[in-house]
Design a protein that fits this description.
Elements: H1 2-18, E1 66-68, E2 101-102, H2 111-132, H3 134-139, H4 144-153, H5 165-183, H6 198-220, H7 225-228, H8 240-268, H9 274-284, H10 286-294, H11 312-324, E3 355-366, E4 371-384, E5 387-399, E6 406-419, E7 427-445, H12 447-457, H13 470-473, E8 474-493, E9 498-510, E10 522-534
Antiparallel strand pairs: 1-2, 3-4, 3-10, 4-5, 5-6, 6-7, 7-8, 8-9, 9-10
Helix pairs in contact: 1-5, 5-6, 5-8, 5-10, 6-8, 8-9
Length: 537
């Protein structure tokens, strides 16, 4: 079911993209027919020299918007050594540069536009579900608030019963779309590229936070699957997408940005075929493509490069000269400093990360019998060079039941201290103690009854009045208890922004009795984690 929904959405969004014509193609370029900068694209970081000798580069974020363009006879041309390094690539004749004045950088976030684009995307997803799913349409006839509260209250465990494609492909793509929506409305970082260092990762954090807020809204908010589709009353209601949508969505954004820099730009340096470029941009950058559509732009829009239609002749000439060996690469990444006005700031960042965020898969062996496989996330704030306060939430699906119709899951939440005596070193061992709670759920499904109820429902045309709820064909038992986890591990500092938690081994104890056939009292938990270190760069 999850795979089919994902594939239907891909086809739907692809068809939606075809509805947009090339009305914004001219807006992609900041060049007129004489290869001079014009004011149609404020953020286009393109360097243009004389009409006989021009070079276009793909430049990163923060480029000032050109406001006026005095002629060389009025203002002396810049000397190449005096130019900011991001404004030219290779030797450029000093007398061929046309200087421009820059405005004060606009660092605002266009919150209203970002909100409206995210709301539009949410509305499209709801419209798709209502159009294609009879069960979703049926829930619109029930008691809205009562069913909404009941659906949210069912949230538990890790798995949401979808197969691989939905939680590990579809939801990360959703996270990247929300992330790109925020980036394209973030004036300070809207043109960052992979390789821009600190600016890039700051932008990624902001996008990930926006994605987390909007996916949480999509999952359990007032205009969510829980409120409009009562999804958690009909399917296994796990935490998996609340964790992997923003985190794997950020990873998807990194992959798309790297593909744009290393694959797409490389392709555009060797061909000016518009169809090939459009297909490459659209399919290698699906998150950015859908975000462009939400902004009512052509799906293949790029503010940092020449337009595909208006500047097609310039593109052809640049590519031809490069292929003939008489010109440089038409498009090339050049890292741009954070401060274009050459004001230097000195700041020493600590080696011990003030804040750490981690996401991980994990495996737990329940010593009373059975295994639990899932994932989770944690956040840690440093209160001293060797001490952190940690908050952690994780969930897992209990495996190895004796009967196929049995299932179970576990949700752990806790907080506590973490001791890091060598946090400033590349290899950093630690020990931690977490105190919190655990909820364990055991469920027995009557598959024959489920099939019978679906047949009687018959997509709303049968004898059953409403789409069958999970409680109609499943018996659920759950219990909450106080739980602790204690253990330790080793972090390997890959770079200032990143660490790899090589191993985290914990002993868990939960004060509760058996839940069905699950014995969660004692367990050994193993994780390996990706850690984002904030405040060290």
């Amino acid at each position: 079911m999850g795979t089919k929904r994902f594939l239907r959405k891909v086809v739907f969004y692809g068809a939606l993209g075809l509805l947009f014509g090339d009305t914004s193609a001219a807006g992609q370029s900041g060049l007129d027919s004489n290869a001079r900068l014009c004011e149609t694209s404020e953020d286009l970081p393109i360097v243009v020299v004389s009409p006989k000798n021009f070079t276009a580069i793909s430049a990163p974020s923060g480029a000032p918007a050109p406001l006026s363009f005095p002629t060389p006879k009025d203002i002396p041309a810049y000397k190449a050594p005096d130019l900011p390094r991001n404004l030219y690539r290779g030797p450029i004749p000093a007398n061929s540069m046309t200087p421009f004045e820059s405005s004060r950088p606009n660092n605002n976030v266009f919150w209203k536009q970002a909100f409206m684009e995210s709301l539009l995307y949410t509305g499209i997803m709801h419209s798709f579900n209502v159009t294609t799913e009879a069960g979703t349409r049926d829930t619109l006839n029930g008691h809205w608030f009562q069913n909404y509260v009941g659906s949210v209250s069912e949230l538990r465990g890790w798995s949401d019963s979808d197969r691989f494609m939905a939680p590990y492909v579809g939801h990360p793509l959703e996270g990247s779309i929300f992330g790109y929506i925020f980036r394209q409305n973030d004036a300070k970082y809207r043109n960052v590229q992979w390789g821009d260092g600190r600016d890039y990762f700051l932008s990624l954090l902001r996008s990930m936070a926006w994605s987390a807020v909007w996916h949480t809204q999509w999952k359990i908010g007032p205009i969510s699957e829980a409120s409009m589709g009562n999804v958690m009353l009909h399917a296994s209601p796990g935490f998996i997408t609340l964790v992997d949508t923003p985190t794997l969505g950020a990873v998807t954004m990194i992959a798309e940005d790297a593909a744009d820099r290393y694959l797409i730009i490389g392709l555009e340096n060797h061909t000016s075929n518009r169809l090939i470029i459009i297909l490459a941009r659209s399919f290698l950058n699906p998150g950015k493509t859908f975000a462009n559509i939400m902004a009512v732009q052509v799906p293949w829009r790029r503010d940092t490069r020449l337009g595909l239609f208006r500047d097609s002749e310039i593109r052809k000439q640049l590519v031809q000269e490069y292929k003939n060996g008489s010109g440089q690469k038409p498009f090339s990444f050049v890292r741009q400093p954070s401060d274009l006005r050459a004001v230097e700031f000195s700041h020493t960042y600590p080696k011990e990360a003030p804040i750490e965020l981690s996401a991980y898969p994990y495996y737990e062996n329940l010593l009373g019998g059975g295994n639990c496989i899932g994932g989770g996330g944690s956040g840690a704030a440093r209160i001293s060079p060797s001490l952190q306060i940690v908050v952690e939430v994780n969930g897992c699906l209990v495996m190895a039941f004796p009967k196929y119709n049995e299932s179970g899951d576990s949700l752990f939440y806790g907080a506590g201290p973490r001791w890091t005596p060598r946090a400033s070193h590349r290899l950093s061992p630690y020990m931690e103690f977490l105190f919190g709670g655990r909820k364990v759920t055991y469920e027995v499904d009557n598959q024959a009854l489920h099939a019978q109820l679906l047949k009687e429902w018959n997509n709303g045309d049968g004898t059953l009045a409403h789409y069958p709820k999970r409680s109609d064909w499943s018996i659920e038992t759950s219990n909450n208890g106080v739980s602790v986890a204690t253990g330790g591990g080793v972090d390997f500092i890959v770079s200032r922004p990143f660490a790899w938690r090589l191993i985290n081994l914990q002993y868990t104890h939960t004060w509760m009795g058996e839940v069905g056939t699950i014995r969660p009292q004692n367990g050994i938990r193993f994780t390996t984690e990706a850690v984002l270190r904030i405040g060290t760069w």
